[in-house]
Write a structure and sequence with these properties.
Strand order of the largest sheet: 5-2-1-6-7-8-11-12
Pfam families: ApbA, ApbA_C
Strand content: 15-25%
GO cellular component, one term: cytoplasm
Structural class: alpha/beta
Keywords: NADP, Oxidoreductase
Distance between the termini: 74 Å
Oligomer: single chain
Family: Belongs to the ketopantoate reductase family.
GO molecular function, one term: 2-dehydropantoate 2-reductase activity
Helix content: 40-55%
Amino acid sequence: MTVKEKTNFTPENKAKVLIIGSGGIGMVASHTLEHKGLSEVTIVVRSAYEKASAEGYHIQSATFGEHKNWKPTRIVKDVPQSLTDENGNEVKYDYVFVSLKNTPDGPMTCEDIIEPVIKSNPDTCIILVQNGIDIEKPMIERFPGTTILSGVSLIGTTTIGTHVNQKSPDNLTLGAFKNDTLKDGEHLCSSKIENFVDLYSIEGKNTVNIDHDVALTRWKKLVYNAAVNTVTALVNLDCSRAVMANVKEPLYRPIMDEIYEIAKSEGYILPPELKEVMMSITDGLFYTPSMLVDVRLGRLIEVEVIVGNPVKIAQKNGVNAPHLTMMYHLLKMIQFRQKEKLGLVKVDETICVKNDTEEYGKGF
């Protein structure tokens, strides 16, 4: 195939897609690709592997209805297992769809996790359907010459265990990250995007758009994520309860205002009406955003890519962002708590034994 040609996948010649990340977005993508009938999906499932392999998933979807005991073509427990089929034959993937949480401050980075499959599939296409800003930079550095696409998903969906709850329609935007390591990159990326749109788009069921300005789109989604996703996680309230507690004007708006200014400092002008849309997008849904789900389940949160990276950009460009900076440091404290619960950090409480407990409080 030349870089300008498309591959015509058919029910007899299906695309092979590896999905890494079995949360809400990954599960909806897995179900959608299999439903369309042009893909064989292998999905990496870690914590729920045994139950998912035995019983499948219970999907409640605003788009596809209810499905019990549903499974994709194959479920594997880790990336190395995905490299060969049940007979030990090497598997070549057309796409590696990455929708796992992006926690570069965790024990393994996303680049570490996907490296085995990229090494064995150098001609594959990586689709990063993840939150945050500047997430492509470490990927391009680790895998030069590999096609890397941006996927921005606007969907209300969560997966807890093997229960998938999709509350709103799937809206996926695909585009190409700027990547100077690709030869004839524009044409190559265009063909990869068009192929995936064919695999994923189902009329009346979802919306798939081609994105010609990936960075702008990511800044737009960050307006929501940096405010709604973070604040609800910090106070442990779902979206509707947070609104009932008067969150919008005191917290959402000033954080969103700062994201607008940081984006502007990078040359991206966000539409003024977007702010009002993002403040009200989950009204009445009693929706639990992804970061709050992670907090409640004791998992690491995406603090660095959602808040840390824009704070660093603000500092670099001299943009005043006090609300976002405060959120960053508060969320880092939550991250510390999560890490301690997971055994990733150890706290030696004996270091305070030398303090005289009778003296405690006399300074107040």
